[in-house]
Every structure is written in C-alpha cells, then in structure tokens.
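Problem 12. The chain below contains 131 residues. Write out its predicted structure in token notation.
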Amino acid sequence: MPSLKYNGPSFYRRSPDVYTPDFTRGEVRDVSQGWVDTYRRFLVEPAWTLMGDEALHNDAGSDGIPDGEWRRSEILSWLAERGMVPSGAYSTKSTLLNMVEEHTTPSPVLEIPAPVLADVVEDEAVETITE
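Solution.
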C-alpha cells in the first residue's frame, strides 16, 4: 500500500480529494493505489513524496514484452536488463518500443542454396578408323 508525505512550504495542504482530510507537513499517510492513480497529477515533487507506489501496467499480450501500455521507465528497465542502452540523451517511448521490436524480432537468416551438382555423363569414346 502506498504512503504519501507532504513536504511543501506551508504547514497545511488541502487534499486533492475533497473527502480526505488536509495534509500536515511531514505527516506520512497510507493511501490506496486507486487513490494514488486518481490524484497522481496533483502529487508533484518536491511538495509530495510518494513511497511504495507499485502501479501495475497492463500487458496486452501477457508475455512480458513491452507494448504501448507500459510506462517509459519500465521499458527502459526492460531494455537495460537485456543490455540495450538507447543512444542519445533522450529517447521517446515510441523509439524505445522500436528498439524492443528489433530485439524481439529475429533477424532474417539468409539461406544460400546448396550447389546443385549435375550428373556427369561420360561419352563413350568413338574411335575413328582412317585407312
């Protein structure tokens, strides 16, 4: 279960949820994952510290391979586990998904056909008799 701590400049801070009491600076409060997912956009650092947030992603194929539902940070972690580091200072989510696609799609194997050996037929030697 996630915990939330208010670190802001004022002593009290209104809760983004009207049914939850105000937050006091330094107070740590347990909140549900659903509550965090609903009000995440209001819980901006450095005013808030969110601990134990383990939001699950929806894996479209249930195969453990990143897809559009995964977060960018999770895709980066997946690539790092496989030794792939994106080049450049910043990579977009679509760029990272392209890297995943390249990693999971096997490279085509160029098959060179075996040389076909023709049957060698030896002609009978024809002797010419000249008189």
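Discussion. The radius of gyration is 33 Å. Students who got a different answer should revisit the alignment rule from Section 12.3.
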